[in-house]
Design goal:
This protein is an alpha/beta fold. Helix content is 53%, strand content 11%. The chain contains ten helices and seven strands. It has a seven-stranded parallel β-sheet with strand order 3-2-1-4-5-6-7, with helices on both faces. Helix 1 runs parallel beside helix 2, helix 4 runs parallel beside helix 5 and helix 9 packs across helix 10. The longest helix has 29 residues. The protein is globular, with a radius of gyration of 18 Å.
Amino acid sequence: MVEAVQDAGVVVTGAGGGIGAALARRFAAEGARVVVNDLDAGRAKAVADEIGGIAVPGDASAIVTEARNALGGTVDVYCANAGIGSGGGEAAEEEVWAQAWDVNVMAHVRAARALLPAWLERGEGRFVSTVSAAGLLTMIGAAPYSVTKHGAYAFAEWLSLTYRHRGLKVHAICPQGVRTDMLTASGSAGELVLAPTAIDPEDVADALFKGIEEDRFLILPHPEVAAYYEARATEPDRWLTSMNHLQQKWEAAK
């Protein structure tokens, strides 16, 4: 058992399935009291009933107060997991870009805005951001997703560097392919890039809890992402050329 989360009040957004459900189950198994959030009220209730948690359905941007009340007044851990895997390029509709920005970035900002005053006052709190390896690297065929996941990572990084001396713990989870509905919806690009090394949602939860025990910011359920991230930083042109070859392979197969 991870002592840091025993009897903690935990909120997991987008927890009706996939990574979110796996996180909710793991937190509950570790002795936490868990609020399960999802836009789909039925799915939220199903997971909450399974783990002995509390379902708080609705828009992840606007449930902090209700979740806090459901937990008896205190949120100790907030998992900003809800996300949207928007595909397309620069020509994607304005609405697609706006929705990706709102769900993948601004929902995190709004949650932090609501949670930080209490956390900073008592000198502790934990913010878990489900980002994606796309936030460290990129994803072919998905400009809105890639750009906004970069934003989600940047915000988690900013939170950590700004408030860690005041007791805030931040974790950024950056997996590649995970066997979820989002992977299925990613189509041929996902099949090419993500499916070959896809892991289960429970593997992501395992990686997070190992990171919590080791007090690490960056959580890499696919360890090889570290080498890709290093190559991107140290040899950007070589890395971009390699990614462009992947783009051409995808285009040729469509």
